[in-house]
Specification:
mainly alpha
Length: 302
């Protein structure tokens, strides 16, 4: 068994992937007033495509006759993963709070597990479902800061619809990634998916820039460059590649568990970069999420 397909590597990626994605929390919070949502998504994925293409180019060159085979798959992935899960999240974050975003995104692993069970036939046993439930509870504990009565105070706003759309989109992206086979390695496949996403984002970014609406203009300065590089390298090329490899090893349902660690890693990132304190509810949530993910990732006994 190769290193990338080994279970030990897959379990390690369960911890690494959400850490890479957590950088997008900082980017999303810093982008308003500096870079427009579609522009940020376009530049992020353009950079990610260039980075990954350096490694995938030899394979793409050898298999160039297969590039158009099932090419429409790449555009579906590009719309789901690069446009909706990119620009829509940045749009929604401007009118809804972090609590709502995290709670809505917490539904994604649940959606993925359910669809995987009934469509992909990825049967989860009692232990795996128990682990998923523990991870979900741990995430909610972090999101509501340990104050369970605060759930009754959560109110939905317009931005939540953008986030819900992105959550459903990520579910479909994850399922199709498992459902549709590919002639290419994970790296080469991701380059093709991102390239299709970039092609879709170009006209949408142009329309955004020409709309003249508030918060749709980009200020070109050093901060813009830093945000684009951070988004393109870490939660772009790094996180998506890690997720693709992880899903190939563990399946869609277990790979979706990475989202449960997002708020915990975001808290650590905010502490290191922004100096925001780590509270007791972060630690308690992590203490519940980590064993939950471990149980959910165990191989089901036949």
């Amino acid at each position: 068994m190769s290193f990338f397909n080994s279970r030990r590597w897959a379990l390690l990626l369960l911890l690494i992937t959400p850490a890479l994605w957590s950088v997008n929390y900082l980017v999303g919070r810093s982008a308003p007033g500096t870079v427009a949502p579609h522009m940020l998504a376009l530049l992020r994925w353009s950079l990610a495509a260039v980075i990954l293409a350096v490694f995938a180019w030899p394979e793409l060159l050898v298999k160039r006759r297969l590039l158009l085979h099932n090419a429409w798959h790449y555009f579906v992935f590009g719309a789901l993963g690069m446009w909706i899960c990119g620009a829509w999240v940045y749009i929604g974050a401007r009118s809804t709070g972090a609590t709502n975003i995290a709670l809505i995104y917490a539904l994604a692993p649940v959606f993925i597990a359910l669809v995987s069970t009934f469509w992909l036939r990825e049967r989860l046993g009692t232990v795996q479902w128990l682990g998923s439930a523990l991870a979900f509870l741990g995430l909610v504990h972090v999101v509501i800061k340990g104050q369970w009565a605060a759930l009754a105070q959560v109110r939905l706003v317009a931005g939540d619809l953008w986030i819900l759309g992105a959550t459903v989109s990520w579910t479909l992206y994850s399922i199709f990634l498992q459902r549709w086979p590919s002639d290419f390695s994970p790296v080469a496949r991701l380059v093709l998916i991102i390239s299709a996403g970039v092609l879709l984002l170009v006209p949408l970014t142009f329309v955004e820039a020409m709309s003249g609406l508030p918060m749709t203009q980009t200020v070109w300065n050093y901060k813009t460059v830093v945000l684009v590089i951070a988004a393109g390298v870490v939660p772009g090329a790094g996180a998506y590649l890690a997720y693709t490899v992880l899903q190939k090893s563990l399946g869609a349902a277990r790979a979706g568990l990475t989202l449960y660690l997002g708020p915990v890693y975001a808290a650590v990132t905010a502490y290191l970069v922004l100096g925001e304190p780590i509270e007791g509810y972060h630690l308690l949530g992590a203490a519940v999420i980590l064993p939950g993910i471990y149980l959910a990732s165990l191989a089901k006994k036949s």
